[in-house]
Amino acid sequence: MIPSDRRMLAGRKTRRAALAVGVLLWLACGGRVLLPTDSASTKPSAAATSRPISDGGPLLDLADQALELGELDVARSRYERLIRMNPNSALAHVGLARVALIEGRRSDAIESLDRAVEISPSLVEAWVALADASLEIQDDQAARDALERALALEGSHVGAHERFRALTGRASGRVPDGLEPAIAWARQYPYDPRVRMIAGRELAAVGRDDEASDQLRTALWLADLNPRAAHAAAGLLSEVDPTWSSRTFVPVVVRADEIVRKDPGWKFRIRALWLDASIQLAEILDVWFVLVAIEPVRLAGAASDLNSIHSDCLDPSTRRSGMLYACFTGRAANRSGVRMAGLAEFLGDDLTVRLEPDEMQSRVLLHELLHIYGAIHVADDVESLMNPAGGALRLDAANYAIVTEMRTRGFETGNLATDVIDRIDVESAIEAYRVGIRLNFALRRLGAAEAMEQVPNSRYVARKKWIEATRLDPHLADVSRVVAQMMVSQGRGAEALHLIEIAASLYGTNTPRGKRMMRWADGLESQLERAYGLERP
User: Fold this and answer.
1) Closest CA to 352 of 411, 310, 317
2) Which residues of the chain, if any, have pLDDT below 70?
3) Which of 25, 51, 297, 403 has the highest Cβ tally under 10 A?
4) Interior CA angle at 482 toward 477 and 484, to 5°?
5) Which residues pair with 328 in a beta bridge?
6) Are 190 and 23 in contact (CB under 8 A)?
7) Alpha helices in 137-265, H assignment, sequence order
8) H helices then E strands: how many in the chain?
9) How many Cα atoms within 13 Å fall on the side-chain side of residue 165?
10) Tens digit of each residue's pLDDT (9 = 90 or more) over 202-211
11) Pairing state between β 248-256 and 324-329
């Protein structure tokens, strides 16, 4: 291997070391990650043993020797001379690119390699070198694409195999048949959901269900690398592990901004966050969040306001139904403003969370996910996940009743009626919300009374407590709207009318949402008047 190869692989391994150790510890694979033992992979490639005179011949060999000895100026001069003699010498462009990579001129290297693969699309060395250059600029997807092209051209190329495994931990060939080979490959390729799925299937076939469950859970954790394999793993897991038989699998698309992605292990962190969320909320929701995609999003021009980030990150034009969408931003809030840590559409299908540096567990993510399942805010002095200002990881009784009624909701259409109302016990959900709303307002009245008691001591403290106690939560408008819609679906329009008017007032009667609520209230009132013969003459 020439020096540039060794340097690229060493750099790649250094960047991936911490991530790989953490993943392997969590997976508890046992054993180490092995390199291929295929004897064919030790043979030199055809491109390395046969160089036509038209591509440079002896002069190309001299340039390669200078590169191998580290004489970069000599090597660069010879490659450039070759290109002047023959602009279509693909190998000369590859050599010049390797010199550029060692010198840190990454854009020049990629430009030379793009020219090389344009001249000779079947040149394996060019694709492997292009993968190296892509890794240097941390474009993993481009590197993977280049390596897949190289392996399609020459399946036994040892350098391509080494890089592919270092990059993805995934197998680049067909998994051998049989139990023991499948287990061995699962150890060898710990990040490959397809291999994990096959190992789980083989273990389940011989009754080793506990081991099969471990392999299949890992396939789900790595779902964004192969959603199809993860889907198959979810189906089999429900069969081999009784604790998963009733669990709902929710597909999640994650988008992360450029600040989050500054951490080399950002994808690992995001997987860990969602793994923790699935475990922490298992008793309440009985749901497993499956990350089918982890995508980058650039928000360089976005404001720090969380509503703006939420809108830019989760652009409706780039979404499809049937998914829960989540945005993670590393952008801090403006000092002068209220620091919103998270934002979620009530009983909707999208959320945004500010991610702190090195954060591996997120109470904010749990809080916003519970909003997705219908939970409502509680007062600041209540020990609950739904207290935005608190630190508790338990859920208060009123919200527990709400969420357990709403946990059968789906994400298929993005429509409240079909995703929520048609999938729950509506009467029980209405009653749970009525209890929660009454409790919410009772706590506000209690807080207001305590504020008044502070007046003789400090009007400033009393005023502060009064504002905190009486400040209306914007989620209450959403709650009123949703509960009203549930009531209308049950033929309880007269009861719903009051909640619709409350929602309009909380949204603001001059806002677009408030105006929609008022039109709904007017239309519903007219329907009720006609139904009961109360129309005015």
Assistant:
1) 310
2) 1-57, 155-156, 165-166, 168-173, 301-302, 334-339, 441, 443-445, 447-448, 450-451, 454-455, 461-462, 464-474, 534-537
3) 403
4) 95
5) 256, 353
6) yes
7) 140-153, 158-168, 179-188, 193-205, 209-221, 227-240
8) 24, 5
9) 17
10) 999 999 999 9
11) parallel
Phi, psi of 317 (to 5 degrees): -70, -15
Strands 350-354 and 324-329 come out as parallel
Task: Name the token pair of 64.
Answer: 């390669």
Q: Tell me which H or E stretch contains 290.
A: strand 287-296
Q: How far apart are CA 108 and CA 88, in angstroms?
A: 17
- Residue 413, Cα to own-chain centre: how many angstroms? 20
For β-strands 342-344 and 350-354, DSSP reports them as antiparallel
Longest dimension (CA), the chain: 104
Residue with tokens 């360089």: 300
Chain center to CA of 305: 21
- Which residue type, as a one-letter code, is found at position 368? E
Residue 333 φ then ψ, to 5°: -75, 155
Altogether, the residues listed in the chain come to a count of 537
Quick one: pLDDT at residue 452? 72
User: pTM of this prediction?
Assistant: 0.67
Structural domains of the chain sorted by starting position, each given as residue range(s) with its CATH number in brackets: 3-168 (1.25.40.10), 171-245 (1.25.40.10), 248-373+409-414 (3.40.390.10), 421-531 (no CATH)
* β-strand partners of 254: 294, 326
Q: Which amino acid is at 214?
A: D
- Sheet containing strand 350-354, edge to edge, reads 287-296, 248-256, 324-329, 350-354, 342-344
| Cβ neighbour number for residue 103 with a 10 Å cutoff | 12
According to the 3-state scheme, what is the secondary structure of 309-371? HHHHHCCHHHCCCCCEEEEEECCCCCCCCCCCCEEECCCCCEEEEECCCCCCCCHHHHHHHHH
Q: DSSP string spanning 392-403?
A: --S--HHHHHHH
CB 270 within 8 A of CB 19: no
> What are the strands, taking DSSP E only, across 396-460?
none
Q: Give the residues across from 250 on adjacent strands.
A: 289
Pair of tokens at residue 442: 């009772």
